[in-house]
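Good morning,

Attaching, inline, the backbone tokens for the sequence recovery test we're adding to the shared suite. The designed sequence is right after.
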């Protein structure tokens, strides 16, 4: 059951606990700010990873498929 929770919910229960405590202490705006900042950070990491994995056609032109990746 613990593995199921980790795989399908990830760290959502821990994050919800931390943001809930922060919101209770500092107000609802702080919780929304932390959630928004985490979303922007995750999107930035995903974009950087995607851009790093994809190469322009000029770099891969003329090479065998095996040596591209």
């Amino acid at each position: 059951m613990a593995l199921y929770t980790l795989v399908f919910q990830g760290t959502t229960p821990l994050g919800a606990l931390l943001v809930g405590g922060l919101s209770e202490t500092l107000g609802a705006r702080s919780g929304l700010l932390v959630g928004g900042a985490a979303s922007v950070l995750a999107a930035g990491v995903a974009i950087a990873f995607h851009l790093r994995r994809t190469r322009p056609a000029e770099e891969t032109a003329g090479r065998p498929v095996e040596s591209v990746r």
